[in-house]
C-alpha cells in the first residue's frame, strides 16, 4: 500500500502571521526614522533636559524699632542690575556680555579704579588668545596643566601689551570684573548705586539679549539715628565681603550664598536668624551643558522679621547728650586722663535695657565717639557701690548680725597699710548706717570674719589669722549671685565678666575686695547687681529685644507680634529677704538722710531714689621702649548705682567715670545719675499727660 505524499505548502494562517509581523516592523522602522530625522533635535533636547537646580535670592532684612515703634534701622530700596550666571559659563561669554552691557551701563569711577593689572592682562589674553599662548613652548604646554599654562601666559603679557587699553576697554574690564564675582545660579549685584531711570529702563528693555542679566531692586541698611546706639545695633557685611570665611561651613549649611550679607556684629549678628528673612527660591531647568531652558519660582521670598527693642530712642539720645556734656565739662576741669563715661538704665523687674551709653574721647583724633558697647565690655574698679553685696555676705554667712555695731576706726595690720574709711569721724555704724555713710571699716570686719579672723577690735599691728583664700572665695561666691564677676546673660554676641584681681598672698587684698577695690566689673554688671537688690534678690536677665514682629504689609506700621521676650529670672540670691530689706534701707538712707553720702544731690527728688556712691583709687600704667611698665598717673574712678522709686522700683541705673584726676570729679557721677532719672521721670510725665489728653 502506497504512503501519501507530504504536503510542503506553508499554511495560510502562517502566511498571515508573517505578513502582520512585516507590517509591524515596517511601522517601527518608519517611526524610528521620524524620531531620528524629523523630531530628533527636539527629542534630544528633552533627553538633555535632566538638570534642575535651585537659585536663592536674598530679601531685605527685618527692620529694627525702638520700644515705641520708632524705626531705628530701615532698608533703603535701590535700583539694581544683577547677574545670575548659568553653570559652566565661559570667560569668553562673560567678556562678550560685558561688552554688550557697556552700551547700557556706566560704571562708577570707584569701581573702575579697582581694576588691577591682572584684570587687564586677563582681558588682553581673551582678546589675543593665539598670540598669548604662542609665548608658551611646546615643552611647557606638554608638562603644565591648563591652570599653570594660563598663569604662565598671563605672566608673559608685558606692560607694553596692556598700556594701550582704552578708557572704554577699561570700563568693559570693570564690568567683567563684577561679572566674575558671581557664583553659578547665584544672583550678584553688578551695580546698585547711581543708576539712572534711563539706564535701568534701557537694560530692562534688552534683557532677552543679555543672558543672566536682570533689572531688579536691591536694598541697603539705613541707620536712621546715625551713631545713636549704632555700636550696639551692629553692622552687616557687604556683598563683596559675603559670609565670613571662618564661618563658611556654618552659613552654607543653612542655605546662605557666599555673597550674602549677614550680621557681623551687635544685634545684627545676635538676631541674624530672624533678621535674614526667607529667600526667594527659583528653580532652573537646564541642559547638561548648562544652558538655561526655563525658570520657575519654587518658594516665594519674604523679608526678615522685625525687632522691637527695649530702648526708647528719644531717651537714649538724651542719655547720650547728657554723658557727652559731662565728659566735655570734666575734661575742661583738667581731667587729662579721662576718656570715658559709661551708664546703663534698666527695668529691674523685667531686665529691659532702657538706655545704654558710653561716650569716649579719642585722643589721637581729638574727637568724641559714641561707643555704647563699652557698657558691656569695659571693666573698671567699682569702689563702694558694691558694699551692699558685702553687707549681705556678712549677714547671710552669720559673721555679722543685723543691727550689730562696729566702731569705725582704722585697722592696723602688721606688714600692711592702714585700712580706714574716707574719714575718721563716722563713729559707730551697723549694717544699715555703714551703707548710709559708706564705712570701709565695717566691710573690713566682714572680710576678716569670713576668713576666720573674728577679733574685734583688731589689735594694732597684729598679724592676721585670716585665711586669705577662703575669705576671697566666700566673697566672690556671694558676689557672683548678684551678677558680679559672671556673665549677665544679655542677648548680645559678647560681654566681659570683669577681671579677678591677682590673688597675691596678702590679707589686704581680701579687705580691699570687700570695698570694691580689687576685682573689676562692667557697667552692665553693676546695673544687674543694683537691679537684683531693687528686685528683692531676684537676678533678672537683661535684654535688648522686647518683641519679634512679622513684617507688616504697610511699611509704616508694625506687624503682628510673633514672640514676646518675657522677664527671665536667672537666680534668687541665697540670702534672707529681711537682710535684703536692710540693705535697701541703707541705700535709701544714703540718698535721703543728711548724713548719707548722696544726700546733697538726691534730697528733694520727687521720685525718691535709693542707691550707693563709689570712689576707687586707680592708676594708669604705660610701657617704655624696653617693654617695662611704669606708672603714668594716679587717678580715681567715681561710680554710682541706684533705683527709683525706692518703695516700688521701676528703673535702676549704674554709672562709671574712670580715671579722673583726684579731687576733680566735681560730683560727675551724681550729675549723671540725677540727670538719668530726671529725664526718665520727666519723659514719663509727658507721656502720661499726652495719653490723658487723647
Explain briefly what this protein structure is.
The protein is of the alpha+beta class and 694 residues long. The protein has 26 helices and 22 strands.
Characterize the structure shown.
- This protein has 694 residues and is of the alpha+beta class.
- Among the domains are: 84-217, Orthogonal Bundle (Arc Repressor Mutant, subunit A); 314-537 and 573-693, DD-peptidase/beta-lactamase superfamily (Beta-lactamase, 3-Layer(aba) Sandwich).
- It is built from 26 helices and 22 strands.
- The strands form 6 sheets. Strands 2, 3, 4, 5, 8, 17 and 18 form a 7-stranded mixed sheet that branches.
- Helix 18 crosses helix 21 (468-481), helix 19 (431-437) packs parallel to helix 24 (577-592) and helix 21 runs parallel beside helix 22 (507-514).
- The longest helix is centred in the N-terminal third of the chain and has 27 residues, at 12-38.
- The chain starts with 11 loop residues before the first helix and ends with a helix.
- Mean pLDDT is 90; it is low at 1-6.
Main attributes of the structure:
Arc Repressor Mutant, subunit A; Beta-lactamase; disordered N terminus; 694 residues; seven-stranded mixed β-sheet; alpha+beta; single chain; 22 strands
Amino acid at each position: 500500500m502506497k504512503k501519501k505524499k507530504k504536503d510542503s505548502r506553508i499554511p495560510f494562517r502562517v502566511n498571515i502571521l508573517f505578513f502582520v509581523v512585516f507590517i509591524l516592523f515596517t511601522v517601527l522602522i518608519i517611526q524610528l526614522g521620524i524620531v531620528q530625522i524629523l523630531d530628533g533635535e527636539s527629542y534630544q533636547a528633552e533627553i538633555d533636559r535632566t538638570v534642575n537646580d535651585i537659585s536663592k535670592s536674598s530679601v531685605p532684612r527685618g527692620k529694627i524699632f525702638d520700644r515705641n515703634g520708632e524705626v531705628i534701622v530701615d532698608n533703603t530700596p535701590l535700583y539694581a542690575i544683577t547677574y545670575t550666571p548659568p553653570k559652566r559659563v565661559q570667560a569668553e561669554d562673560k567678556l562678550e556680555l560685558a561688552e554688550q552691557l557697556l552700551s547700557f551701563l556706566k560704571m562708577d569711577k570707584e569701581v573702575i579704579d579697582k581694576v588691577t593689572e591682572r584684570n587687564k592682562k586677563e582681558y588682553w589674553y581673551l582678546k589675543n588668545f593665539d598670540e598669548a599662548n604662542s609665548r608658551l613652548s611646546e615643552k611647557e604646554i606638554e608638562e603644565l596643566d591648563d591652570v599653570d599654562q594660563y598663569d604662565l601666559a598671563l605672566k608673559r603679557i608685558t606692560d607694553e601689551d596692556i598700556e594701550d587699553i582704552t578708557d572704554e576697554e577699561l570700563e568693559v574690564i570693570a564690568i567683567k570684573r563684577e561679572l566674575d564675582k558671581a557664583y553659578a545660579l547665584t544672583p550678584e549685584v553688578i551695580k546698585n548705586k547711581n543708576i539712572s531711570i534711563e539706564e535701568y529702563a534701557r537694560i530692562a528693555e534688552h534683557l532677552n539679549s543679555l543672558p543672566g542679566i536682570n533689572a531688579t531692586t536691591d536694598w541697603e541698611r539705613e541707620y536712621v539715628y546715625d551713631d545713636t546706639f549704632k555700636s550696639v545695633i551692629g553692622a552687616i557685611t557687604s556683598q563683596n565681603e559675603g559670609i565670613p570665611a571662618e564661618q563658611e561651613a556654618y552659613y552654607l549649611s543653612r542655605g546662605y550664598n557666599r555673597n550674602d550679607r549677614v550680621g557681623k556684629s551687635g544685634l545684627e549678628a545676635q538676631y541674624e536668624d530672624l533678621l535674614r528673612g526667607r529667600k526667594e527660591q527659583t528653580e532652573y531647568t537646564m541642559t547638561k551643558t548648562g544652558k538655561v531652558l526655563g525658570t520657575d519660582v519654587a518658594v516665594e521670598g519674604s523679608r526678615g522679621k522685625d525687632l522691637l527693642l527695649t530702648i526708647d530712642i528719644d531717651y537714649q539720645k538724651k542719655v547720650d547728650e547728657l554723658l557727652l556734656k559731662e565728659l566735655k565739662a570734666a575734661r575742661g576741669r583738667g581731667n587729662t586722663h579721662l576718656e570715658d563715661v559709661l551708664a546703663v538704665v534698666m527695668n529691674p523687674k523685667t531686665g529691659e535695657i532702657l538706655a545704654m551709653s558710653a561716650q569716649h574721647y579719642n585722643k589721637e583724633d581729638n574727637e568724641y565717639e559714641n561707643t555704647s558697647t563699652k557698657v558691656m565690655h569695659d571693666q573698671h574698679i567699682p569702689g563702694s557701690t558694691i558694699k551692699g553685696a558685702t553687707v549681705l555676705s556678712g549677714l547671710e554667712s552669720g559673721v555679722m548680725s543685723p543691727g550689730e555695731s562696729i566702731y569705725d576706726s582704722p585697722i592696723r595690720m602688721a606688714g600692711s597699710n592702714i585700712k580706714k574709711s574716707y574719714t575718721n569721724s563716722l563713729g559707730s555704724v551697723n549694717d544699715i548706717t555703714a551703707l548710709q555713710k559708706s564705712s570701709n571699716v565695717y566691710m573690713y570686719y566682714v572680710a576678716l570674719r569670713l576668713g576666720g579672723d573674728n577679733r574685734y577690735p583688731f589689735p594694732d599691728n597684729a598679724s592676721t589669722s585670716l585665711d586669705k583664700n577662703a575669705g576671697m572665695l566666700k566673697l566672690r561666691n556671694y558676689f557672683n549671685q548678684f551678677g558680679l564677676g559672671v556673665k549677665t546673660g544679655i542677648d548680645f554676641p559678647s560681654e566681659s565678666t570683669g577681671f579677678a584681681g591677682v590673688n597675691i598672698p596678702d590679707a589686704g587684698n581680701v579687705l580691699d575686695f570687700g570695698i570694691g577695690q580689687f576685682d573689676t566689673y562692667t557697667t552692665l554688671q553693676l546695673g544687674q547687681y543694683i537691679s537684683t537688690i531693687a528686685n528683692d534678690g531676684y537676678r533678672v536677665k537683661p535684654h535688648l529685644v522686647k518683641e519679634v514682629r512679622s513684617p507688616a504689609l504697610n511699611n509704616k506700621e508694625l506687624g503682628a507680634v510673633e514672640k514676646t521676650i518675657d522677664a527671665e529670672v536667672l537666680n534668687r540670691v541665697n540670702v534672707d529677704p529681711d537682710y535684703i530689706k536692710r540693705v535697701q534701707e541703707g541705700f535709701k538712707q544714703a540718698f535721703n538722710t543728711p548724713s548719707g553720702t548722696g544726700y546733697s544731690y538726691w534730697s528733694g527728688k520727687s521720685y525718691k531714689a535709693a542707691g550707693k556712691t563709689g570712689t576707687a583709687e586707680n592708676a594708669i600704667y604705660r610701657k617704655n621702649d624696653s617693654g617695662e611698665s611704669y606708672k603714668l598717673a594716679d587717678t580715681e574712678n567715681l561710680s554710682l548705682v541706684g533705683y527709683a522709686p525706692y518703695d516700688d522700683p521701676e528703673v535702676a541705673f549704674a554709672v562709671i567715670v574712670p580715671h579722673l584726676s583726684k579731687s576733680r570729679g566735681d560730683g560727675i557721677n551724681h550729675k549723671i545719675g540725677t540727670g538719668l532719672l530726671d529725664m526718665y521721670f520727666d519723659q514719663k510725665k509727658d507721656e502720661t499727660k499726652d495719653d490723658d489728653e487723647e
